[in-house]
Amino acid sequence: MNNLQSSTNYSITKQIIKLKISKFIRKLKIENLVYRNGFTLVEILVAIIGVSVLILAATGYMFSILVQRDQALSATIVSEQAETIFSVVGDAVRSAQSVAVLNGGSRLELTGHSECWTFEYDGGSARLVFDHVESDTCSPPTSATNNLNSSQASLDSATFSLLSPDDSSRSLELVITVTATRPLFTTTKNFDRVFVNVIDEE
To answer: Would the pTM of this model clear 0.85, i.e. be above it?
Structure first.
């Protein structure tokens, strides 16, 4: 009787062990299949971090390129605006018979043989305005409405001054501050130019 019971218990134990081994093997096969066909959580996190670093690096590089572009464009706009103002004012000054600086240096009136000019700095709108008339007996216009600024730049200041008002050879200095603003960069620069005018006193 005891031998029969022991044999039965041994058989049950053996079956239980086989069942556990079988379950373990099936589980191991499933885990190996997942490992071969998928990614672990750590691998996914590492991939996400790597992609994020690459995206941030690319974004920073592109932003740097855009800033440099706007810096170059704003510097070009500022320089071109200054040269435009100096060209117009310089031509008018060099051909004038008389030069008058008024309103503390914000207004310039020029009288020539056949044309007269008025330049005035409008601080409210940050621009240099002008007007001129052509006539043998002209006088400088009382008001100036034509804008000498481009739409891409503003004039923070403009000052006219006579450097040697008592001589027949007069030197007129124009000092301006020009600003150009782009979405990612703003350039502000000071310029000055001296124009020589020979007054005809006859």
So the answer is: no
